[in-house]
Every structure is written in C-alpha cells, then in structure tokens.
C-alpha cells in the first residue's frame, strides 16, 4: 500500500516535470541556440557566440561573412519601429475605448446591456483568419490604402475587448459606495471620477494596456492580411525570414522579443501589486 | 417650521423587482427632524430605513413627495449639492488616500485654504481621538479606528445634518457600546442633527431623542425611546422593541380573555375598547412567593426551561392554553427559581396597572 502510494506521488512528480518540459523546452532551446556558433545546423552545438546578436545590430563579423542571412539590418530595425508605433497607438486607443466601455457597462443600466457586453467579447473569440480577411475586404472595399493606419484600426477591433475584460474585472471588485461617499462630501461627477474612480481602476487600466501592447507586438495573422505590401511589423518580418529557412538570427530576435515580453509582464505585475 | 432641519412630505419610493412587480420601500413617509435632535430609524431589514436615509442624502430619487433640508427644497438636488453628510455602513474610506486626505476630502473639494484645511483636519481627528494618524492608510487601522475616520470625514464640513447608516454594526459589542456613548456626546458637542439608522433596538433606545420604528415602508410609531418601549402603538412595535408577551383577546370588565381562555388582569380604562392585545414585558414578571397580594395579578405556568443570564434568569413557560410566556426573574429570587426548576411549575405575578393595552385597530394591517 505504502509502495503504491509512493509510486503514485513519484509518477505525479515525473508528470509535472514532463508537463513543464513540454511547454518550456522549445523556448529554452531557442534561447540556447541563439548563442550557438554553428551557422547552418541549429541542432549541432559548435561553440558559444554572441555574433548573431551583434549581427542584428549591424556589426559585421567573421562568421557572418559566410552566412549573411538578414537581408539588411535596416529592414529589421524598420520592422521593429513599425511594430512599436503600431503597438503604442493601438494600446492608447484600445485602452481609452476599452476602459470607457467597461465604465459604461459597470455604471449604467441601459436597453440591450447584455447584448452589448456579448458584442464586446466576440472579437476575442473570432478566428483571427476570419477577422483578417473581413478587415482586408472592408478596407479594400471602402478604399482605404493598406499600411500602418489599417493595422492600427484592425488591431484595435480586438484589443478593445481585452482591455474591456481586464478593466471590468477590476471594476467588479470596486466598492461602489466610494463614489457615493465622494458625492456625499461635495464632489461632482467629474471630480469623483478623477479622484476616486480612476485611481481605483488604474491597476486594471495599466494591466489592460500592457496586455494590449504585448498582443499587438505579437500579432501576425490579422496584421499580415491588412499590412499591405510595403509595411512590415516584426512578426511579419520574422515570418518572411523563415520562408527561406530557419536562420540563427531568428533565435536571437526571438530571444529578445521574449525578454521584452517578460519585462512588460513583470512591469504589469509590479504595478498591480504596488497599487493594491 | 423654522425649527425643523429636515422635513419629508409624502415621500414615496418603489423599486422594481427582478422577477417583475415592485416593492414599496417608502409608503408616503411624513417625517420632521428638529434641530439638534438625535433621531433613530429602527426597523427590520427591508423596512425602508436605508432607502429613507438615501432619499435624504440624494442617492435615491423619490417617486413622489418632497424633501426639505433647513427650509430649502432639495428634492431635485444631486447628492453633492445637499448640506448633509453620511457615515456609511462599511465606512467607504478611500483606500488609496491617507487618513488625512480622507478627512480633508470635503475641504479639498470646496477649495478651503491650505492652512485652515490642515488645522481643521487635525481638529477633526483630535475630536474622534485619532490625533497624529494623518499619514496612515485606512487599511493600517483597526475597524474601530476606521469608523472614527469615517466620522471625522463626515463632520469636517460642518453639515447641518449627519446621516449614519448602521455605522456600528461591524464593531464588536464592547467597542459598539463605547462608540454609542461617544456618538451621543459628539452630537451634543457639535450641535448638529443626527439621523441614525439601525436594526439594533438597544442601540436605538440608548442613543436617541426620538425613535422612528419603520416597517413595510411606513413609520409605525415615532416617539421617545421610553414611550416607544412602554406604550407601543401596535403589535409590530411591541414585538420588535424589546422582548414581549402578547395576549390577544376580548375585554371583559377588568380582564382580557384570550381565545385559548387565558385571563390577564388589567387596571386601565377599557370602556372604549373591545378587542385588544395585552402587552407584558418579561421584566414585569416575578415568581410569586405563595402569599397573595390583593393589588397583584397571577398567572400559572408550566416551566419549559430556565436559562441563567448572569444578571438573573430567563424563565420560558407555557400557560394552561399553551401560550408561550417569557419572564425575566431577578437573581435575588434564586430560591423560587430552584423550586420552579424542580416542580416544573410556577406562579408568576405581575402588576395589572403595568399591563399595556394595544387596541386591535392599531395592529399591523
């Protein structure tokens, strides 16, 4: 009996180990191989190097002469810049609109409120490819030329949903009598919003904004459809590189994106904890 | 009507129920609160007392009727334009602000100069015994301290009227009793009217100048604590305030005879009454010694249970007809209590003059 019990808990430990290995091993490999000196075969370790990182930032070095895969550093940096511009713009717009929608649904009861809430959830559940095609057809049909502008508009359609959900969750936990107390002490609605409501929902707003930023930086499918031919975001650029084989620089770029995402997530956690 | 600080005229409010229909929270309330008065709204949950308070503070809009504060019609005014402040049930302190900012909130909103604001915040905190805690956050304070902050925040703007929505319900018994006395003292010092909502009848009787007993959205009785306790207007008030033994029956000379055949001696003028409810408070009873006194009345009961309460005993018994009787017996009567415990029988004595009669028409419809 005791043996069976021990076997059970041992197999559980093994299971948990395999479970996390399954999730994190591929990611760990990408990080490890971003330092692999072998320019051709990713799976063969032939020494430590930071050449791929140097190369991304435009430094020529010995090994890169043999394997210059990145078309040009300028293209990569342009893609990063486009991604940052898009992410910053969509985050700003989606945060304001998503927060406003959450406040409206929280505060007021109006005809069709439930339906309205469902409408706000749906873009998140919509298959990316459907949303991508729909947006493409719409933009072309209306006659808006594809580029940074259409990417921003397109991403906002579903990022608003994310902000809405995160801010709504925060609002649900808020004590509504705080607003009453503020009004009772002589504050009008705008002052109450500024001094009481906004500080209370701020962790939710910041959390929603960071989530929107990460998702925007990462979006490939929808952005791919509505970016047009001359605009490249970072995911589209990487996708383009992959079509001509997996190259060592991709590992380095992926590792940096990973770090960037972690940094933003950590910032979100930190702000959330501090504000509470 | 210059003397009244608040006046409600035919205040009416109904809330829609989620399953359809409406519930009447205020059913034509007429109420007047005098300057410097401590009025308590007392009633079970759902009686409309909180709705009444919210109607005065402005968080609930009336369906009909008018509200005057200090002579001004405030019925249409939003909460932030009414000269009343509220102490909320859960305190509603702003969690992201320090105690000082919480207390100074009303002054910051009204643009009071910095110097004056700071000294008044200090004074208000001093008044509730929290001097020097300006820089703490609400969550770093105990429940009783938070309660005091809420109080300081509500009185700092010197409102004409302070509304208190069950402010002591979250405190433990000892602290609650201490705060009751403090609130009463504070009210006298400040010289402003208090409307205090509670479902705790002891709290209502201890603190108030007058008590308004509410049920079903209507004021059942409004009077001094003594009058409400000793001369309840109807059965609801009698049973809600204090423990009570109610005997419903027909008047026959100097007695009230219940349907079950119990006879209650009374010595009040019953000529104008026919059907009544006789009220006997538990403390009006004693256990008879055996010697009969001509001026007293007696009631034989079967003892069901005797409970020791510290200050005395509580005897739960039944009359011959099966009517439940609760009697509070003084600790001095411990011999009689012991006898009653062994024989399971007791004769209770009471003063017929102390029996209060409630006319049947005054009963709750």
- How many DSSP H or I helices of chain A? 12
Percent helix among the residues of chain B? 25-40%
Largest contact between chains: A-B, 17 and 24 residues
- The CATH class designation of the largest domain in chain A is Mainly Alpha
Q: Would you give the CATH topology of the largest domain in chain B?
A: Rossmann fold
- CATH architecture call of the largest domain in chain B: 3-Layer(aba) Sandwich
Q: Specify the structural class of chain A.
A: mainly alpha
Output the CATH homologous superfamily of the largest domain in chain B.
Answer: P-loop containing nucleotide triphosphate hydrolases
Secondary-structure content class of chain B = alpha+beta
Beta-strand content estimate of chain A: under 5%
Rg over C-alpha atoms of chain B, rounded to the nearest angstrom: 25 Å
How many strands of chain B? 20
What oligomeric state do these chains adopt?
heterodimer
Strand content of chain B: 25-35%
What is the top-level CATH class of the largest domain in chain B?
Alpha Beta
Number of domains of chain A: 2
Characterization of this structure:
The complex is a heterodimer of chains A (276) and B (365). With 276 residues, chain A is mainly alpha-helical. Chain A has two domains: 2-66, no CATH class; 73-245, MetI-like (MetI-like fold, Orthogonal Bundle), CATH 1.10.3720. Helices cover 77% and strands 0% of the residues of chain A. In chain A, helix 4 (73-107) crosses helix 11 (234-242), helix 8 (177-184) packs antiparallel against helix 9 (189-218) and helix 9 (189-218) packs antiparallel against helix 12 (248-275). The model of chain A is unreliable at 64-68 (pLDDT under 50). The radius of gyration of chain B is 25 Å and the shape is elongated. Chain B folds into two domains: 4-234, P-loop containing nucleotide triphosphate hydrolases (Rossmann fold); 243-362, Beta Barrel (OB fold (Dihydrolipoamide Acetyltransferase, E2P)). Helix content of chain B is 26%, strand content 34%. In chain B, the strands form four sheets. Chain B has a six-stranded mixed beta sheet, with helices on both faces. Chain B has nine helices and 20 strands. With 365 residues, chain B is an alpha+beta fold. The chains are: A mainly alpha (276), B alpha+beta (365).
